[in-house]
Amino acid sequence: MNSVRREFLKGLWDEHPTFRLLIGMCPTLAVTTAAANGLAMGLATTFVLVCSSVMISLMKNLIPKKVRIPCYIIIVATFVTIADMVLAANFPELHKVLGLFIPLIVVNCIILGRAEAYASKMPVFYSFIDALGMGLGITWGLTFLGVVREFLGMGTVFGAQILPATATSWVIFILPPGAFFTLGIVVGAMNQINYALARRKRERATGSITAHQAVQG
Fold it and tell me: Taking the domains of the chain in order of start, what are their residue ranges?
């Protein structure tokens, strides 16, 4: 049970694809101008990642090693097409905003990386858990970036006006430079949090050893 929990949680923080591994940067920087865009891209990526990982894990013994990458791409492209068509049919305005970045999920290094490094070697259940954790990590990461950029750039969150209409908006945050600023700040904050947690863990371990030695002495 602990191993399942660990495999699921690693994608949410310790091995977060966006903020820790820093892969799949194209959609991260391009579509997070608004919270809704980040959420939609994250959910689409999660759908493709989970479905393709499960399928690849199921077929890992049938796929020849020499052509595994083309086979992975075909499997991923199938689910990307489904996601693209669902978005186009049900959310045409959102589909228009996301545009080319939905088809580009096919070659997203997050998807192919998990397929090669994990799904092709692990059982179906663990592949599902790994993909779900990574996908949800991507989703909260893109949504968070979208919330920050939309709030600072337009004073809204998911289209709802938060700041007064007369408040000054930092338009730069919904422009390309704003994506780099926001990403850098979030990555720096996560590094500081991890550093503080690691230091606290070391202090607790040192304190436990000292107390144990004192008792023995």
Answer: 2-216
Cα dist. 160→14, 35, 86, 95 in Å?
32, 11, 25, 20
Instruction: Look up residue 115 and give its two tokens.
Output: 């397929």
Phi, psi angles (nearest 5°) of residue 165: -60, -25
Work out the mean pLDDT of the chain and round it to a whole number: 88
Largest CA distance in the chain: 73
Q: How far apart, in whole angstroms, are the C-alpha atoms of residue 44 and residue 108?
A: 12
> Token pair for residue 97?
């905003």
- Closest Cα to residue 138, out of 53, 35, 2, 13? 13
> DSSP characters for 5-42?
HHHHHGGGTTT-TTTTS---HHHHHHSTTSHHHHHHHH
Distance CA 87, CA 3 (A): 35
Residue that wins the pLDDT comparison between 217 and 93 = 93
- When pLDDT is averaged across residues 200-206 and rounded to a whole number, the result is 80
- The residue ranking higher by pLDDT, 42 or 106, is 42
Burial degree of 56 (CB within 10 A; 0-12, 13-18, 19+): buried
Interatomic CA distance for residues 156 and 175, integer angstroms:
15
pTM of the model: 0.87
Q: Encode pLDDT of 99-124 as tens digits.
A: 778 888 888 888 988 888 899 999 99
Q: Is the pLDDT of residue 57 over 90?
A: yes
